[in-house]
Amino acid sequence: MAMSRRQRARTFRGVQYGVLVLAVVLIAVFADWGTIRNAFFNLDAAATQFPEILSTALVNTIIYTGLGFALGLALGLVLALMKLSSVGPYRWLATIYIEFFRGVPALLVFIALGYGVPLAFQLRFDIYSTAAISLGLVGSAYIAETLRAGIQAVPPGQVEAARSLGMSQSRAMITIVIPQAFRIILPPLTNELILLTKDSSLIYLLGLARTEYELAKFGREGLNATGSLTPILLAGLCYLIITLPLGYLSRYLERRTGRKQDEGLKVTA
Fold first, then answer.
1. What is the DSSP letter of 31?
2. Chain segment 167-177, per-residue pLDDT in tens
């Protein structure tokens, strides 16, 4: 007899569970747990990482990310307004900038600022400025597009109402449009912050003093010192301390924004 759709789905789901159980059993039987424990869960190697992995590496990662995001947000807002400008050259310059920094790997930006600029112009930045500028340049290109989409999502009637009250175009943009746009783009903006957090790991390529280590550099030095992957695992967990709350915040904001939009549609209807 031919199986119904529900029976086929149930059989397929059972096969998937069976494959999963078989894989777990095979790993449990044949894995070299002693080697795995020494490679990933070496308590002696882990003990050497504290407290500096938290007090230095994690703190520096947050500082580098925060500085880069602040610069990227400010520059991204300017670029978004330029791209929406009625002045052609502003739109062209903003488009060229955004397409360039969206298309170039962040690694090249770090190398250019860390090594290229000092060699070409004898202009040297400290590590915090290098991190802020590099992350800000890359992040601003993505943030600009997010902001532009948010500004365009604000109903045109909001601007028209503000203009009818005697507000200028610039005042209406600053006091009416941009605040509403930020509420719309908070979820994708939070995702951009997560990406910048991970991109901050590229700063280790520029050579850091121990007090300037971020998580990736700290984990790599721990790997070299202990010969165990435990420091890398700890560095990854520290990244999760930053990114998981941001991810939950992003999803919460998405749900909240969706509910408000649904309520607005009901009111309109």
1. S
2. 777 788 778 88
Residue 117 DSSP one-character state: H
pLDDT in tens, 248-266: 888 887 777 666 655 554 5
C-alpha dist (Å) from residue 190 to 93, 196, 225: 26, 10, 35
CA-CA distances (angstroms) from residue 176 to 105, 143, 179? 36, 20, 6
* Strand (E) or helix (H) holding 54: none
Inter-residue contact 4 to 194 (CB < 8 Å) = no
Cα-based distances in Å from 126 to 130, 131, 133, 268: 6, 9, 11, 54
Beta-carbon contacts of residue 55 (< 8 Å; ≥ 6 apart): none
CB atoms within 10 A of CB 77: 19
CA pair distance 19, 28, nearest whole angstrom: 14
List the single range of 19-23, 57-61, 155-159 with lowest mean pLDDT. Answer: 155-159
26-36 residue pLDDT tens: 988 888 888 88
Contacts of 156 (CB under 8 A, 6+ apart): none
Angle subtended at Cα 220 by Cα 51 and Cα 47, rounded to the nearest 5 degrees: 30
DSSP annotation string for 148-162? HHHHHHS-HHHHHHH
Q: What is the pTM of this model?
A: 0.83
The lowest-confidence range among 194-203, 236-245, 248-257 is 248-257
- Token pair, residue 131, equals 């991190």
